[in-house]
Design goal:
With 350 residues, the chain is α/β, with parallel strands linked by helices. It has a domain of 89 residues: Ribonuclease Inhibitor (Leucine-rich repeat, LRR (right-handed beta-alpha superhelix)), CATH 3.80.10. Helices cover 30% and strands 16% of the residues. The chain has 13 helices and 14 strands. The strands form three sheets. The protein has a ten-stranded parallel sheet with strand order 3-4-5-6-8-10-11-12-13-14. The protein has a two-stranded parallel sheet with strand order 1-2. Helix 3 crosses helix 4 and helix 8 runs parallel beside helix 9. The longest helix is centred in the C-terminal third of the chain and has 14 residues.
Length: 350
Amino acid sequence: MMELNGCVVEQLMWGRKCRLGKVASVNLLDNYLSLVPRLPLKVLILINLPHLNYLDDQSVIQALADMHRPEADNLSIRPKSYALIQMCLVERKDSTLHVPYKTDDLRLVAPLCQLVTDLNIWVQVGVTDADLLSLMVLKRLSKLRVSCAPNGSHRCSITFDGGLAPLLKVRGRSLISLELVNLPISIHLAIIVECCPNLKLLVLEGCTYSTPARIISKRMKNGFVLNHLEQLKIEGNFVFDQALSLFMPTNSFSSSSAPSLKCLSVLHCDNLNDDVIQEICQFHPFTNLEYLYFSDCSFVTKKGIDLFMNEDNALKRVKIYSCEMVTDEDFAVWKRKVKENNWQLYVEKE
């Protein structure tokens, strides 16, 4: 892979194509382009390098959309498709470099970039359910992150039933990673479990969840389980109460719906306590669990964490942060136990 240096960038900016033949095979441009505040350079690069796989630039979606609007100049000579496999739509912290999102930008861009596998959407003013529905054309989509700024409900116009759920019903089976963060909308975990059976990573942070646990359990008993799930991160009491069903047995003859879980992170959850952990561990042996992280869980004690520490588990790292009922003496006891049993386990207090 060749490196696109400043000289070639300058030539692209001024439309000089003397070296484009050599540059056409470039697959990755670094953050150099992210420092360019105006769109003309990005437009030239995308036009001249349609086989580009990666463009590390946060306004690439807006740039492509502007290039392909019906009123755009020279629309007929624009590439009909692009080879980008990763795209992000986020807001820049530096407002001078931020390119505002226009409603339908995603609708214009998605059909042109059907090779995209990794998509990161920061929900902002202008992003609607229609934009999410337009992503159904991304048949190779495997990683999806949809997030919003904390306390950013005034910017969020998407819904679960009208946008996310229909998208997951069409493309959920291809997803191996799904992250929903700080979305001020009501999310149905049961639909995620049913539509995304091949997830390996599931992150649920700071969202509201409205599906009753009994409905989630019913879906699981009907065979909707997350057999491939390896990493689960949940934050907040609402999320945790829903996610409990992931650890309950799907029927009287089976184990929980996440038997392959390797990494479990629970943050900011006062509903997690020793009794809940004991109930979970009765149904889920956590035999594949390698990483355990509890942060700001006020009612977890050594008794609950001890339930994860036994010779049958594959634990390699336990990290506890701001759990006020876990003491320094508890950490000292664990370290002695690890040494006495010769476990390959690192217990960390952040």
